[in-house]
Write a structure and sequence with these properties.
4 copies of one chain form a homotetramer. Chain A is an alpha+beta fold. Chain A has one domain: L-amino peptidase D-ALA esterase/amidase, CATH 3.60.70.12. In chain A, 21% of the residues lie in helices and 24% in strands. Chains A, B, C, D: This is P1 family peptidase.
Chain lengths: 356, 356, 356, 356
């Protein structure tokens, strides 16, 4: 018997991570100028893959944005990492895709950048492409993703609430014993000054591509899934903020993004490529925010990544693909029942010293 | 009204983390040759501090042991880090103490090493000393720790179950809203070959010095403590194993040790110096264990660190110190009641692909 | 007037770097099992580019070889770096090419690996591809390199003395004010035990792709070239050894490879992607060589890289390409005259403590 | 026969490194607010050691200064490294001393900081102390350096030309086959905007503690010394600038400082702890300088470190110490003769693309 539940975000199920305020969409797109696009490939019995693009519009008029990276477990094919770390910046949108398609996606991103108006004499591009292995549900060796798929993801990128679950680079992924996928969330806090957004509020938005092993925990309550059959998985996390943080500070944010995987039960297996990239859209018209402003940003990352990972699971749909393999969506009913039976869960709220 | 509960380890309270087998002591000393010693300083109203020594006997006849390091958040005064990383080894016992005493402890450790028989012409020592800030309960600026205290910790180091809770370098620490301290735990697994211990079993033991902020979670159940009043805290984790892992592999183990802090509710605040050191006692008489052997070791680290952190809290005793400040031990009764009210907790068990 | 000199290796000109013994070919191919192949693209007026492949035969029967990386200046698009660092290994040949072709070369290398016998079910490949910007002499935006070119470089890889100078990935490069290209050299020393080669001798071979700015120095004597007109250059260095060094030790070797660039006058400009990869072909049938064995290996790397960089220049031929730009080969006569006028040069010989 | 030459700086001997303008003192003290102090211990036959303090006055009114670190070879006992890297700053003066005295010097620096007015409630200090092994000329195991010696170095720190050669932390060191010691140099360039100094000029000053093996090269000309008898040496380099660079940029500067060691013939032996720290005194009242401003700063670091290393040798005096060991100062006459015999040296001048 198959689940026929409608996809729901965590908050639609009444599941709230932490006590911090979200942005209007509770999504990475709450950071002004950040758009998300997906190309989803579902072809025949064997292809369940795709591309997801995170596009900061600020790159239209600035050569690069400050960025930091954390490699939680470097068993992955992250493209662009050394230049990102050296210069502390990204100069292209960030793309997510399937392991064996990484390099043709990167090549297509190079093509895209070279074609942009005003870049007719550019001779160097550092594309940012991360990946995860969707080979359990998709015929990954077929490498079906083409430059057109990449361009479609970039062109279709839009503001507002991004599609989540079994879409884009999350079409064929699985996490914590269930069908995984794309998830997003955001948090806002005040106190920062001189940020890109008005009124001094700082927004932190995250997007995840979930594909890793462990035992799912929803607000701390374990939800038994199926053991991972797949090796070489990964979790890629993209953090965007309009807070004027510099590259070093952003790398500290990126670290917390990977740390947050533990909150939903990641087992940090050695074959998983666990990466986080954090970038800032703030105009570089002053010194970076003081280090103390990082504390609410750290807490925001921890909360937002936990919720985005839950969204990636709750929004995913049961998928059958390559070799007849199936990954089942987690049953919302099972989760809600478990939460009801663990009333201690209600008082959840990661409080940090920065607020009270 | 003050708690008068007797200190208890997690398992004495019926709280079991994961499903893996422990060593005989469920302690870092289950790794053959590893001894632990404490000097505890409780003087007058203001001094609540100490030194903890982790002493691998293998250093008696080998110049150094393979070791790896992970800096989760480098806001700390870890001594010996760059040489540890460059050469992939430790050449002294590892000492833990209070922030402002770090360097006199390191100096005393140098004295200790120079005095050892056979080292009469040694001209260089790379002492390993890590620290945490116990300035809320202890007059840290007084720096009361002397070379004699250091030598006492080293000389008293013994096999068997180490003292836990408010002892040694954990005398004045606090974690997750409660009194913190020293905790330890271990795990064993089979499958490895060529290890120091007989029968091919590999032991992973950990010792923690807990002193960080966040919301305590016991097997996922939140236990409300008091907000941290203190800044500049740290969590130092020492991992020992008799598995023949090399420095690179040990640094991967160390990374999981810091990741495990999230399992008990760490908020990974920016002012915390979160470090893990992992070393191997195995004789270097063959190639390192294959990478696949790391999977059960990773899972063992995650479980053992979680349990050691719980032990550090459950074994701690309410302490009043500097400035009349008090850190309360977590109430076992409060924890057990919360667990009873969350029956979903029973099926806990971090399973990884590497076993079952 | 144009130079019409025949390409000559440094030693053919009587220029000897250091006092250490070379391997039979004075080339990276002196490490048994290491082959080198080039595809050189010279098409019309605008295309001066190519691919160079370093192929360790040991990968035919072993999944991976121990490897280390050093990023001297990360302004480059090195593919495969994070997994190389995490696992301490390479699992593919190393390819060198032009910046904007990096990802299609990486994609072709993935295709090549997937097609190898016995890899029919492999779902993950970490290709190693490094690059440099040859956009001054070649129409880099045209990205003329195809999968066929990559396969040709891999298939044609052979033992013996590799072609040097304006070939393969060095076809369109320039260094230190002159035409640059591919160069190679090697050194041998005894004292190691348990190495892949017989008789306990250890061979260290290097191959460079030279493309960076500075003032050429030959055995310390400055040779005035033309200022660099090009930005975004790089120097990629591949070090192979049959010494049984582990990943950490190999990363120490890689560091010295970049340090050696200073010996020929590199100015370590910020836009240069300066990378070194070191790998070992030794069978993993014992513990790694003791750290002391690294000293002669360090000295060998310093000497061999210096000589390989000289070879890359002395073997290069004056090249005119994209936009009518020309890079002139350094005049051997000019170099030899300068050396004659600086008789102090004769006593060159970098001696280290590790030998006599 | 012993040399009785008077100490001379490189420029007093007519030896000029590069073509860039120096500051008024050609010293690290050309960076406004940076003072240098030494305590020199020459006691009896066996003690030849000391302490050198680099004191930025800006720390009187700011908690910390932006700073970056590069570990060229981590075989050393650098204190303060992980917090420097995490927060991208130094909060104390930088001290240099002898290996086995490192920790008592660090402890004394902690005492000094705690005593400063306005710091009565400070509970955490991250002292910056680096070291080198002077055990060939000094009875390093005696550890004669006391807190008073440290305070004397800090208190005596002054502007103007620092003492060089066999003073302070360079009293007992040796480099490249000769007596080593302390050296300093500086460079200035225009083009930067918004710097701490007026008129937009940026100053880069360096101070070195030379103690490493290799074959001395003066402007490329080899000068034969004696092989190193000592192991565990180090080269510590401190770079100060008034350019408003951030921590990431400063770490790029620090990298070039270590690279520059190759210019005087360093062999980068495995036992040497080669470290560079770079800090900026500029007020944090705007965004960091653009990355392009780093190019002249890189070139300045390369030139200044090369010259400072030469100064450390040319200013050193022949020293006999522990065990009757002697390190001979390099003969100025020998150097000048070698340079005369290599007329090609005259056109020295490391030019980079950033200037012309």
């Amino acid at each position: 018997m198959e689940l026929t539940q409608a996809p729901r975000r965590a908050r639609e199920l009444g599941i709230v991570v932490g006590s911090r305020e979200t942005g209007p969409w509770n999504a990475i797109t709450d950071v002004a100028g950040v758009r998300v696009g997906h190309t989803t490939l579902v072809e025949g019995d064997d292809i369940r893959t795709g591309v997801t693009a995170i596009v900061p519009d600020q790159l239209d008029h600035r050569r690069a944005l400050p960025a930091g990276l954390f490699v939680g477990n470097g068993h992955g094919k992250m493209v662009g990492s050394t230049q990102l770390a050296e210069l502390g910046e990204i100069e292209t949108p960030a793309l997510l895709t399937a392991t064996l398609s990484t390099f043709r996606v990167a090549d297509a991103l190079v093509s895209h950048m070279l074609r942009l108006p005003g870049r007719e004499s550019v001779q160097s591009v550092n594309p940012i492409v991360a990946e995860t292995n969707d080979g359990y549900l998709s015929d990954i060796r077929a490498r079906p993703i083409t430059a057109e798929h990449v361009h479609a993801a970039l062109e279709s990128a839009s503001a507002g609430l991004p599609a989540e679950g079994s879409v884009g680079a999350g079409t064929g992924t699985g996490a914590l014993g269930f069908k995984g996928g794309i998830g997003t969330a955001s948090r806002r806090f005040t106190g920062g000054t001189g940020t890109a957004s008005s009124e001094g509020a700082v927004t932190v938005g995250v997007l995840v591509q979930s594909n890793f092993s462990g035992l799912l925990r929803v607000l701390g309550v374990p939800i038994l899934g199926r053991p991972a059959e797949q090796t070489g998985n990964s979790c890629v996390i993209v953090v965007a903020t309009d807070g004027r943080f510099d590259a070093r500070q952003l790398s500290r944010l990126a670290r917390r993004a990977v740390f947050a995987m533990g909150r939903v039960g990641a087992d940090f297996a050695g074959g998983s490529g666990d990466y986080a990239i954090a970038f800032s859209t703030a105009a570089p018209d002053g010194p970076p925010l003081p280090e103390a402003e990082l504390e609410p940003a750290f807490a925001s990352v921890l909360e937002a990544v936990e919720e985005a990972l839950l969204n990636s699971l709750f929004m995913a749909t049961t998928t059958t693909g390559f070799g007849g393999h199936t990954k089942h969506a987690v049953s919302h009913e099972q989760v809600l029942r478990a939460l009801r039976e663990s009333p201690g869960r209600g008082d959840r709220g990661h409080r940090d010293r920065g607020d009270s």
